[in-house]
Amino acid sequence: ESAMRKRGSMPMLSPTSRGPLSQAVLDALRSGETSRLVDAPDPDNTEDAQLALWTMYEQHHGGFDDISDDLEWDPHVLGVRRRLEQDFEQTLRQRAPQAPEPGDFAETFFDFVAGHEGPSLSSHMHRSATEAQVREFLRHKSIYHLKESDHTTWVVPRLSGPVKAAVMELQYDEYGAGNPNRLHATMFADGLHASDLESAYGAYINEAPVEILEQNNVMSMFGLNRRLRAASLGFLAAFETTSSVPSRRIAQGLDRLGFPPEMIEYYTEHVEADAVHEQLAVRTICGVLIEEEPALYDDVYFGAWTSMDLEDRYAHRMLEEWAA
């Protein structure tokens, strides 16, 4: 049982289905009768597909108390997962623009990120979000932040020595620099607990919108598939590059609304950490990766675009809902 699960009061149970495919996947996993997935139905919609995919990926993260760990690499489950992954990746690639012309990598990458325009959820939280809106945001983000950075760790064995060392330098910070109480995931759990929100991992999965499922799924898909290692690191680089300023705004919004210091500290920690991490992720991780393997150039930008685009989609959804 993970330390994170022990922190919360709830067991990690598999989620509620959102359509015929996710229901079939959940039934098969809970019963262990996975051979019935040979005749798995098509998903009803994106939510159905993404919840099914999230449930299968979660077998590689913390798992579920009501599903056997023996099914993590079950071939029938993997067959359904592979089909969903192919559809998901194709959708993401169709959305992404062409990578910019190669030049100085760091300069080109920072320009690419700076030129990306999207709605700012952090600005809304900074100035005008209500307490209820911020609480909803924190519940949604808990799906990722309570296992923060784990997907990147999967990529480490697939990298050369110099890139591996740089990723581990970044991950060492994410995992608390040796102090279990300073793991970013632990700090987020402490913030939730202090805010009277459930800090058990996965507690809010049943209210997570499809955009949150997609964000989490793409990180797992990039991390678990060796051929997508450059997309995973591009995603990381864009994530870090676009994190520092929004983290400051969110911290100020939390302070404005009187949230506890533990929750605010999670975001203030990321203001400084991610300003350092963005240089490391772009120059020493992605830059060196491209020098070593130029054929991975386009995938770095595919991952970076996907990181920003999925965050935009979540922001659009929430700002529309909150304005209604």
Briefly summarize what is shown.
By secondary structure, this protein is mostly helical. It has helices at about 5, 20-30, 45-60, 75-95, 105-115, 120-125, 130-145, 150-155, 160-175, 185-195, 210-225, 230-240, 245-255, 260-290, 295-324. Helix 5 packs across helix 14, helix 11 packs across helix 12 (about 230-240) and helix 12 packs across helix 15.
Care to describe what's here?
The chain is an all-alpha fold and 324 residues long. It has 2 domains: 3-93, no CATH class; 101-323, Heme oxygenase-like (Heme Oxygenase, Chain A). 65% of the residues lie in helices and 0% in strands. The protein contains 15 helices and no strands. It has helices at residues 3-7, 20-31, 46-58, 75-95, 105-114, 121-127, 131-145, 150-153, 161-174, 184-194, 210-224, 229-241, 244-256, 261-292, 297-323. The longest helix is centred in the C-terminal third of the chain and has 32 residues, at 261-292. It is globular, with a radius of gyration of 19 Å. It starts with a helix and ends with a helix. Residues 1-9 have low confidence and may be disordered.
List keywords for this structure.
globular; disordered N terminus; 324 residues; mainly alpha; 2 domains; Heme Oxygenase, Chain A
Number of H/I helices: 15
* CATH architecture descriptor of the largest domain: Up-down Bundle
- How many extended strands? 0
- Would you state the CATH class of the largest domain? Mainly Alpha
**Biggest β-sheet description:** none
Helix content: 55-70%
- Contiguous runs where pLDDT drops below 50 for at least 5 residues: 1-9
Rounded average pLDDT: 94
How does the overall form come out from the CA principal axes? globular
Number of domains: 2
What is the assigned CATH homologous superfamily of the largest domain?
Heme oxygenase-like
Radius of gyration from the CA trace? 19 Å
CATH topology of the largest domain: Heme Oxygenase, Chain A
Order of helices and strands: HHHHHHHHHHHHHHH
Q: Which range does the strand content fall in?
A: under 5%
